[in-house]
Design goal:
mainly beta, Immunoglobulin-like, 2 domains, 6-stranded antiparallel β-sheet, 14% helix, 38% strand
């Protein structure tokens, strides 16, 4: 006879709880949490390159307007670094016709007057450069002729310090500075094909980096990075030997390149796809 009031009381309490604040909902046969499958030797994420361009460069122009576009400054200073000069003494540049630029270096540039229409950038750097023959001279100019539309290298090389450029027009001048200390400054490019054959930058290209002096046939790289819209990328790597290779995604055959980085040194590496 005493059970009826107890049952009634329990029923009232349950009804009151249902009308109150939300409590934990009981789950019947809960599903196990979905866990990602363990991955052996995970592929490193592709890192976007930090903002290259003006964040890496500085310059002391003689007058307002004496600095060329950022991509021209980047190309000039990268080429200077690749030739062994991280701190060139000066840079002179102008935009002119290809016909005028053809007068710069004799047979090395004479074809421009016939085969290249439109405007070009002519860039002259002064410093201590290492030529392709491995010889170093202190009074040497490094010259570049760059297409204004697709940033292609139309000509590049070393000219004597007394090269006559007066017929090319009025040059602007500034002192370039590289705001980078240590690591690797890379440039993704394609070379070959129809004349002049480049090289020309590859934008947004993926680069795989391995530790050691060769890229293995299989296995995961140490790092993957992606170049910016001008084909430049940065890799913050400790001193050592590394191999870089383009991840095939366009024309050309990716050619591995070895980079050796010493403590406190900045290295320029060209990561190239060769076109027959």
């Amino acid at each position: 006879m005493r059970r009826a009031p107890v049952v009634a009381l329990l029923t009232a309490l349950l009804a009151l709880a249902a009308c109150g604040g939300p409590g934990p909902s009981p789950t019947v046969s809960p599903s196990p949490a979905v866990r990602p499958s363990p991955v052996v030797s995970p592929s490193p994420a592709v890192r976007p390159s930090p903002v290259v361009g003006s964040s890496l460069l500085a310059g002391s122009p003689s007058r307002a307007g004496d600095l060329p576009p950022v991509w021209v400054r980047s190309e000039a200073l990268w080429q200077s670094l690749a030739a062994g000069e991280a701190h060139p003494r000066s840079c002179r540049w102008l935009m002119t016709s290809a016909a005028r630029a053809a007068r710069l270096a004799g047979s090395a540039t004479s074809y421009l007057g016939v085969h290249w229409p439109g405007k070009v950038y002519v860039v002259l750097l002064r410093g201590r450069f290492t030529t392709g023959q491995g010889q170093t001279s202190s009074a040497t100019s490094l010259y570049l002729i760059l297409a204004t539309d697709d940033h292609e290298y139309l000509a590049q090389g070393f000219a004597t310090s007394g090269a006559d450029v007066s017929s090319l027009g009025r040059f602007h001048s500034y002192v370039p500075r590289l705001l980078l200390h240590g690591g690797l400054w890379g440039h993704t490019m394609v070379a070959g094909g129809p004349a002049p054959g480049g090289p020309r930058p590859i934008a947004q290209a993926e680069v795989a980096i391995w530790r050691g002096d060769r890229a293995p046939a299989s296995g995961q790289p140490l790092l993957r990075v992606r170049s910016d819209n001008d084909g430049f990328f940065l890799a913050d790597l400790p001193p050592g030997v590394y191999t870089l290779r383009l991840v095939a995604s366009g024309p050309g055959w990716p050619t591995p390149v070895t980079a050796r980085i010493a403590a406190g040194e900045t290295v320029a590496a060209a990561v190239v796809a060769d076109v027959p």
